[in-house]
Amino acid sequence: MKIEGKNAVAEAIKSGATIDRLIVQKGLSDHSSNAIINDAKNKGIKIFFRDKEALDRESPNGRHQGFVADVTDFGYSEVSNILKSESSATPLIFILDGIEDPHNLGSILRVAECSGASGVVIPRHRSVSVTETVVKVSAGAAAHVKVAKVTNVNDAIDECKAAGVWVYALDADGDNIFEADLSNRSIAFVVGGEGKGVTPLTRKKCDGVLSIPMYGKVGSLNASVAAGVAAFAARAAGGKKSGGNSKNKGKQFRDIFAEARSKAGLSLTDVAELTKVKINMLIRYDAGERMPTYKAYLKLTDILGISEEEFAMSRLEFDRRKAEKKS
To answer: Domain count of the chain?
Structure first.
């Protein structure tokens, strides 16, 4: 399997993945590139320096950033290993019911890693596996997250429930996730496939069905964003973390937006011109009066690099503050 990009390659090296060959673009001398090269040398990895054209040919997706690595195929875990994770006395688990888009799976792996989840369960059929694209989209998170591939998702749910895990399906007609009691319990969220949602039989297996309230005109979130909102709703409710850090907990979008603009050296007017998002809406985001729709967020992140995890967490914070004002 080939992986590409600085983050994905750097995390693969750190995790101890078996890298058979690392191809590096000639002439790279920036700090992050040197750090990756030095780490690879320290691990005894074979490094080959080639022209950019050679990496373009090796690259699965054309986004190599000067690094392409040949890695032993992804090593899957077992559900039992996820449940026994040493870093997780009370686990947070994602069970994916038919996610077929590699970008969604990659983003969910990133959500899982950032939220300190114990692992992700995917079905053997009707689902994307961990591919080069998934690893790339996960920004290196795939190297740190346990992924179990199972024949039957419903059997995995039974195994989780037998271990004392509360299993909730995420669906549009469920109870408000921000009003549910998610504190002090082991939780697994079942995330349905694109356009199909959680299958009826799998939904019946769950202990409950939770939904994320929508405030815009679009009726649902992308699967990976929904997973992010759910993960941090569980963490904010006081469930025990299995790892990671919470430095962004409670961060408002206006602060994330301001930091990203400052880092990029862009004014609100610049952002409006580059993203085609109306300036009056940007002013409201900047003041913390509104949250972007997911469509607007995608336009903003192309320029400002705001992660889906940050967006999901700030959505949670915005909804919490809005609920507090009503009460």
So the answer is: 3
Interval 223-279: pLDDT, tens: 999 999 999 888 887 654 444 444 444 578 888 888 888 888 888 998 898 888 999
Q: Does residue 134 share a domain with residue 218?
A: yes
For 77, residues 6+ apart whose C-beta sits below 8 A from its C-beta are 119, 146, 147, 148
Full strand arrangement of the beta sheet holding 19-25: 2-4, 67-71, 19-25, 47-50
Radius of gyration of the chain (CA): 20
Note if the pTM is more than 0.85: no
Paired tokens of 98: 């038919």
Q: Is residue 242 part of a domain?
A: no
User: Are the C-beta atoms of residues 244 and 117 closer than 8 Å to each other?
Assistant: no
Its domain, for residue 159, covers 79-236
Using the 3D structure, point to which of 208, 236, 264 is the last residue of a domain. Answer: 236
